[in-house]
Amino acid sequence: MSIIKILVVCQHYFPEPMRITDICEELVKMGHKVDIITDVPNYPMGKIYNGYSLFNNKDIQRNGVNIKRCFTIPRKKGTIMRILNYYSFSISSSIYARKIKKDYDIVFVNQLSPVMMANAGIKYKQKRNKKLVLYCLDLWPESLLIGGIKKDSIVYKFFHMISKKIYKKCDKILISSRFFKDYMKKEFDIDDNKIELLPQYAESIFTPETCKKMPDDKVNIVFAGNVGKAQSIDTIVNTAEKLKNVEKLYFHIVGDGVKYQFLKEKINELHLDNVKVYGRKDISEMPVFYKMADAMLVTLSGDSFVSETLPGKIQTYMAAGKPIIGAANGETKIVIEEAKCGFCGSADNADELAENILKFINCENKEELAINSYKYYEKNYSKEKFLNKLVEELEKTREEK
Fold first, then answer.
1. What is the pLDDT of residues 108-162, one digit of tens each?
2. Which CATH class is domain 5-199+382-399?
3. Beta strand spans in 247-341 (E)
4. What are the sequence ranges of the domains in the chain?
5. How far is CA 63 from CA 28, 67, 352, in A?
6. Suppose 63 and one of 25, 165, 269, 349 were both cysteines; which one would form an S-S bond, judging by CB atoms 3.0 to 4.6 Å apart?
7. Strands, E assignment, 52-97
């Protein structure tokens, strides 16, 4: 294996809770050279993290990764601030990328929302005549539909044009969900041979041993991750209300996001003693919450094609060897059923979710569900498989004429 000098572009990086931090550090452990262009950390709550500022962020190295932070207006709240956040990073990082004198072998864009975060990588690619690999984790402009943007609106059509331009300029697109492929081909006329499936993996701290259930007399259902519009938080609250009289059943929600305040208000409004919220926790603390879980919970909005995604939490749940209960469509539902690791109903359907939780409580093969969950992870999503596939695609794309 040859050493690759990689320029990574992603708007979000440590201390923001994103898997790209682990990916970059693992690439360094494999012997590769990794520099990343990223933001001033403010996700998910839109406030700049303590110890960082808009203007005085020195380039630093963390665990072998060289980090360049570019000017970023915090997300805060509202559409205008979100747009300012998106474009402030896109513009500042693109300006920086054009000035880079260092010679990299390839550009790797870890594309979450917004798709415009890829612009800096495209600028470097064009100036230095390099190849670019994009890892699509949030499908644009479909992600806008979760925020209430309509498909027939000028805003959607504008970002559809922007997204098409960006995706067409990529030499290779790695997708986290198999459903993305048909969309890419239909909407943007992307060639089959430019698209490869690369499901996410879980960080090494999540194992059946580190997350083994701590015995108690309760049934604990744990939701971990972003508390946003795409996660259909209403479904969780409505389900908890339907099951509030089920003895010793508790919902635990660990995470933060734009719907966090709404969640707390609804819990108080409905007097739900069976729901506990913990806010955002550092990834190093998460196994503690997994240990309390009899099963993990995944909910997704069914409003758009985004509901067809496979969120990274699925791999984490499985790596921990946990049964999964879901309310989701598309690949999430397919994977849970293929793995035989739990029960999944339709997206946004609190009635089905409540039924599936009761089914889980009464089932006699909980241990088998847990074993199936981990086996499926090992077969399909291990970190080793992910990193080997990623490096293979980077090397292959770099050599293509």
1. 999 999 999 999 999 999 999 999 999 999 899 988 887 778 888 999 999 999 9
2. alpha beta
3. 249-254, 275-279, 295-299, 324-327
4. 5-199+382-399, 219-380
5. 8, 10, 45
6. 25
7. 60-62, 65-69
